[in-house]
């Protein structure tokens, strides 16, 4: 079956403006595993756009060769609302202009909605219950509110993705080494993904909090039991979701896009969405490249004052607890008092920088990941705004 490309209309924000999402569908609808991929949910994070640009022809080739086993849904740009948010020539990204907040927070808590439509206990027969929950989920998604452009856009993305077995949300950091976030309930799949894509840092959480897009369909499967649905405790962690941080905002090139697309193809083959076939033409990453860490072992080092940033260690450096990772320069202070040293609380790898070099108090400067859980990092509030 060949690719189907659809254009889904979004609510017009103003007269004379039309918005839409493009969706490419591969494989038979309802085939498993279903994999959903999207890029640039935060609107100003473009490496994922390049990765999916290079993935589509590979999927077309696999399709022509009859290698698509599951259902693969690709949304090559997830957020036309945010991509249109320009201020002074710059796409501001991340936060909606309509006051609804961070585009990747507060996605619907699906468990109470699904519970309402289940109307009674599950059976304890896992396969039958998974089918029944998915049916109730689709009904619940159809009933999500859609009275504003943002609500209708969120509902559209949720209806495309929430019943998938794998949800891959392609993001990036300011300046960074590649890393990914996933739930520890599916640590094995997270490592398979990281290894397929050559990603060295895997950040696993029990409960990140914040309602990130990829966590809504993942957490549904255990939140049903918490919501009081009888027999739901037998449900496995059906959905795997990952937020994949493809380096930094300006790491956009054909070469990196080809590399990431090849990595995604390797993952699709490893989870059985693609029948194995011809090699994708790029050498796979070496085994043992990826390391799993707890998300609460990431030190997010923030700026204590406003100032100009002088990083003291390169991206990827191994640093020690107490080590100076950056100096903030306060141009308003007198000489001798105008340099403030900033240290890390973690021993480990420095893997992100803020891309801006003039910061205000509270701005995140770097992230350092190691083995020691950090007391100030609390389960349920592990993501930044
Ligand atoms: Zn993002």
Q: Could you give a short account of the major beta sheet?
A: 9 strands, mixed
Alpha-carbon Rg, integer: 21 Å
The level-1 CATH class of the largest domain: Alpha Beta
The counted number of beta strands is 20
CATH names the topology of the largest domain as: Aminopeptidase
Which cofactor or ligand species appear? zinc ion
* Strand order in the largest sheet: 1-2-4-3-7-11-9-10-12
Q: Round the mean pLDDT to the nearest integer and report it.
A: 95
Structural category is alpha+beta
Helix count from the secondary structure assignment: 8
Our measurement of the CA-to-CA distance between the termini, rounded to an integer number of angstroms, reads 42 Å
Describe the structure.
- It contains eight helices and 20 strands.
- The strands form four sheets. The chain has a nine-stranded mixed sheet with strand order 1-2-4-3-7-11-9-10-12, sandwiched between helices.
- The longest helix has 18 residues.
- Helix content is 26%, strand content 26%.
- It has two domains: 286 residues, Zn peptidases (Aminopeptidase, 3-Layer(aba) Sandwich); 74 residues, OB fold (Dihydrolipoamide Acetyltransferase, E2P) (Beta Barrel), CATH 2.40.50.100.
- Bound molecules: zinc ion.
- Zinc ion binds next to loops.
- It comes from Marivibrio halodurans.
- Its cofactor is Zn(2+).
- InterPro entries: AstE_AspA_cat (IPR055438), N-alpha-Ac-DABA_deacetylase (IPR053138).
């Amino acid at each position: 079956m060949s690719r189907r490309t659809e254009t889904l209309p979004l609510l017009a924000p103003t007269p004379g403006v039309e918005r839409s999402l493009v969706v490419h569908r591969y494989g038979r609808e309802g085939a498993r595993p279903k994999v959903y991929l999207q890029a640039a949910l935060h609107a100003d994070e473009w490496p994922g756009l390049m990765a999916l640009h290079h993935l589509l022809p590979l999927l077309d080739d696999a399709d022509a060769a009859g290698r698509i086993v599951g259902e693969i849904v690709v949304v090559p740009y997830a957020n036309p609302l945010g991509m249109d948010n320009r201020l002074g020539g710059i796409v501001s990204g991340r936060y909606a202009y309509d006051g609804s907040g961070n585009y990747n927070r507060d996605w619907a808590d699906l468990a109470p909605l699904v519970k309402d439509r289940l109307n009674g206990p599950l059976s304890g027969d896992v396969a039958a219950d998974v089918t029944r929950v998915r049916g109730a989920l689709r009904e619940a998604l159809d009933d999500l509110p859609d009275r504003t452009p943002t609500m209708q856009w969120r509902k559209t993305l949720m209806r495309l993705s929430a019943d998938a077995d794998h949800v891959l949300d392609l993001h990036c950091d300011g300046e960074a080494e590649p890393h990914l976030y996933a739930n520890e309930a599916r640590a094995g799949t997270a490592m398979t993904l990281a290894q397929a894509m050559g990603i060295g840092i895997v950040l696993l959480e029990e409960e990140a909090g914040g309602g990130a897009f990829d966590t809504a369909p993942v957490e549904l499967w255990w939140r049903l039991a918490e919501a009081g649905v009888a027999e739901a405790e037998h449900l496995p962690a059906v959905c795997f979701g990952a937020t994949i941080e493809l380096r930094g905002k300006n790491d956009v090139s054909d070469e990196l896009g080809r590399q990431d697309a090849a990595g995604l193809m390797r993952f699709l083959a490893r989870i059985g969405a693609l029948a194995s076939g011809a090699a994708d033409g790029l050498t796979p990453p070496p085994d043992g490249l990826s390391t799993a860490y707890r998300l609460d072992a990431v030190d997010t080092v923030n700026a204590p004052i406003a100032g100009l940033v002088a990083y003291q260690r390169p991206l990827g450096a191994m640093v020690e607890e107490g080590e100076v990772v950056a100096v903030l320069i306060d141009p308003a202070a007198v000489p001798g008092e105008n340099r403030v040293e900033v240290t890390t609380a973690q021993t480990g790898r420095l893997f992100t920088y803020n891309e801006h070099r003039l910061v205000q108090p509270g701005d995140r400067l770097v992230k350092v990941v190691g083995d020691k859980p950090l007391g100030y990092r609390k389960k349920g509030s592990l993501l930044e705004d």
